């Protein structure tokens, strides 16, 4: 089934008041939530959710709803690794204990009611609102944003109710168990990546593009364009060489920012050499594109990357270092790259990468990857273990002799 068919089938169930399962990215929490649309919440659907999913029942809302109902954040300093934006809990004033399925359904529906006022709710309560990022899953790949995006795609109030799925033994359900549960309940299951891909294909977010400037390099004179997606504060960069507006597939490299490698020439990783080799390859061929994506440290940021380096110096590998910090092993996402490619009119590419996840994600976002072009850098004494981990744990297509 195509991504469009899967998402639209899920939307049809949601618009009828039903429930679906949304699975997280494998590189993130790798968990699943049951999801329903807030304005259709009933005693029956809430009860089904809390008895089948067993996790914490939450109430994702768009920022506009949080502002209208004066929903303040639960804490001004969050320590959550994934940036989950919990607000103060609440109950609708007509509820009794607030905890029954009927009472929670009442609170959920009234939060979704555009006529509700802040004084209609008591704090604290038994429902836990979550504020979604304005850019949805294209800004943050969480269940909060996925649920609110689904509400928007369904054309209803941007609010939903969700619950993490926990197995009977108390452990979190993973992809295999989520599929089994969806089949048992006869409800659709989609992924956060499906929703992101659907949005990219259907809505094509508007980019802010700066005027291109000439960038002479040792590899040729590129045109450099700054591009910014809605809801993001980082400027992404596109380095173009030659005429890309032809029917021939474009040679493309997606390069995630690495300050230590790109600027300082660190030999702890192959990033800096990959950047220069990619530019040289494009220069030699006289035509191509490099997208410089601001995803320092595989998306965890420079400070956390340095913390991970400290753990690596104690013998922890690059994968487990992130995990020990409570962070995703790889938090990078490539939907923004797909949006940039679409904005540049490029849909057929030859992708320079050793990472099959890039191929899979771009393909899901409607980019035709006609060829994967390897970009392997010989190991040195400092990065051999790092490259081995990339091969063995991240499944990059690297030499078997590492």
From TrEMBL:
Residues engaged in binding GTP: 253-257, 274, 296-298, 318, 353, 358
Limits of the GTP cyclohydrolase II domain: 213-374
GO cellular component terms, A-Z: cytosol
Essential for catalytic activity, annotated site positions: 126, 164
Pathway: Cofactor biosynthesis; riboflavin biosynthesis; 2-hydroxy-3-oxobutyl phosphate from D-ribulose 5-phosphate: step 1/1; Cofactor biosynthesis; riboflavin biosynthesis; 5-amino-6-(D-ribitylamino)uracil from GTP: step 1/4
Subunit structure: Homodimer.
HAMAP family noted in UniProt: RibA (MF_00179), RibB (MF_00180)
Family named by the database record: Belongs to the GTP cyclohydrolase II family. Belongs to the DHBP synthase family.
Full protein name: Multifunctional fusion protein
Organism encoding this protein: Lactiplantibacillus mudanjiangensis
């Amino acid at each position: 089934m195509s991504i469009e068919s899967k998402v639209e089938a899920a939307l049809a169930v949601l618009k009828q008041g039903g429930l679906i399962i949304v699975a997280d990215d494998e590189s993130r929490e790798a968990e699943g939530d049951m999801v329903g649309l807030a304005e259709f919440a009933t005693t029956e659907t809430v009860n089904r959710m809390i008895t089948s999913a067993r996790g914490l029942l939450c109430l994702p809302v768009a920022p506009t709803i949080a502002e209208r109902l004066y929903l303040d954040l639960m804490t001004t300093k969050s320590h959550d690794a994934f940036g989950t934006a919990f607000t103060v809990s609440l109950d609708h004033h007509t509820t009794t204990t607030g905890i029954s399925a009927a009472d929670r359904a009442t609170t959920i529906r009234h939060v979704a009611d555009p006529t509700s006022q802040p004084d209609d709710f008591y704090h604290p309560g038994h429902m836990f609102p979550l504020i979604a990022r304005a850019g949805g899953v294209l800004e943050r790949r969480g269940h909060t944003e996925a649920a609110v995006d689904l509400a928007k795609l369904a054309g209803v109030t941007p609010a939903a109710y969700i619950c993490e799925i926990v197995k009977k033994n108390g452990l979190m359900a993973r992809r295999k168990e989520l599929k089994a549960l969806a089949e048992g309940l006869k409800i659709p299951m989609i992924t956060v990546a499906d929703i992101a891909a659907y949005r990219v294909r259907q809505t094509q977010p508007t980019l802010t593009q700066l005027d291109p400037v000439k960038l002479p390099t040792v590899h040729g004179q590129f045109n450099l364009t700054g591009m910014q997606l809605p809801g993001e504060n980082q400027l992404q960069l596109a380095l173009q060489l030659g005429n890309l507006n032809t029917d021939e597939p474009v040679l493309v490299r997606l390069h995630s920012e690495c300050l230590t490698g790109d600027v300082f020439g660190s030999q702890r990783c192959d990033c800096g050499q990959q950047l220069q080799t990619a530019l040289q390859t494009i220069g030699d061929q006289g035509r191509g594109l490099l997208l410089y994506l601001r995803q320092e440290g595989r998306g965890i940021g420079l400070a956390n990357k340095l913390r991970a380096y400290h753990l690596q110096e104690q013998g922890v590998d690059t994968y487990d270092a992130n995990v020990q910090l409570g962070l995703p092993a790889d938090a990078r996402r490539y939907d923004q790259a797909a949006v940039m490619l679409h904005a540049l009119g490029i849909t057929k590419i030859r992708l320079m990468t050793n990472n099959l996840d890039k191929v899979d994600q771009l393909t899901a976002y409607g980019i035709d990857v006609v060829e994967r072009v390897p970009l392997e850098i010989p190991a040195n004494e400092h990065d051999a273990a790092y490259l081995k981990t990339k091969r063995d744990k991240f499944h990059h297509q690297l030499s078997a002799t590492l």
